[in-house]
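[stage:ingest] chain + small molecule (flavin mononucleotide)
[stage:ingest] validated
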Amino acid sequence: MTASNTIQPDISVNLAGLKLANPTMTCSGTGGYAFEYADFMDLSKLGAFVTKSITREYRPGNEPSRIVEVRAGMLNAIGLANVGLKRFLDEKVPELKRMPCPVIVNVAGHSFDDYVETVGAVQALDCVAGVELNVSCPNVKDGLTFGTHAGRLRELTAAVKNVIPGKPLIVKLSPNVEDITATARAAVEGGADILSLVNTFTAMAIDIYKRRPRLANVTGGLSGPAIKPIALHLVSRVYRNVAKSANVPIIGMGGIQYWQDAVEFILAGASGVAVGTALFVDPATPNKICEGLVDYMQKMKVQKLADLVGALELPGDQPKAAPYP
Ligand SMILES: Cc1cc2nc3c(=O)[nH]c(=O)nc-3n(C[C@H](O)[C@H](O)[C@H](O)COP(=O)(O)O)c2cc1C
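[stage:predict] done
[stage:export] tokens:
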């Protein structure tokens, strides 16, 4: 094939009305509030930028040590350190208005009121294309984590959906549950427009000389390549059992580092792919993933990325036309 007749694949995506030039995003908490990575990645080539979790009140987060490197990944127990809603609106939003790509604000809270007030305030901003809910937080009233209890998650999603009428609501699922399809279904029933998965896996590391946990918080969230195969499996399950039939797009994340990882998530059912821990190794990872996707689609003669979403064939599936060139 000559350069002149090589097709330019279409890698744009439409996530419940949220139109992105490509499927790549940052994972919340790994790319700062706005321009922190501007010197190291081309932000204009991101499908979307996802902010650090914002809470109604300022949070200093946990005591150090709150980050530990482990084999094939890292543990973090940052504890949702963030400037709080007021300073976010005063100091960070003017920056976000200048972002050269769509912006999604991630919101966390410890009560229904926390979430409803914070989402209500950020969704009204013109520079905000959508809101992602971090539901891996314990409720102040009963200590139960919102994202691990299907009934609670359904109620929370419905309450928040009420205050975000015109923009997509993304619910970010925790993997620390017995059956992720139950919480995925609850989020969809509550009105989630998009599901994102997964958040980090609860884990720990021990200093064998001090005989103490390496994190002051004792446990933290495991992320990075170590979790990729598990995250992929969870995306595939949620896609097949909940999202596909409900027509709710998935943003896949968990250990994505190379374009091949992104292709795997897309074949498993993700329409968008977010990069977190890999940004600490190479902030340009999302840009490189786009280049790899285009090459792969050209080689495989796939014109539209949407045609790859969920194209994984499992035993027992109706065979699809072989996508080989
Ligand atoms: C240092 C760090 C901070 C994080 N902070 C947040 C956060 O504030 N809100 C959130 O929803 N997820 C947070 N996460 C989870 C990531 O957004 C993502 O779900 C997870 O790390 C899996 O993706 P990865 O393996 O590509 O990092 C954080 C992850 C890391 C490593």
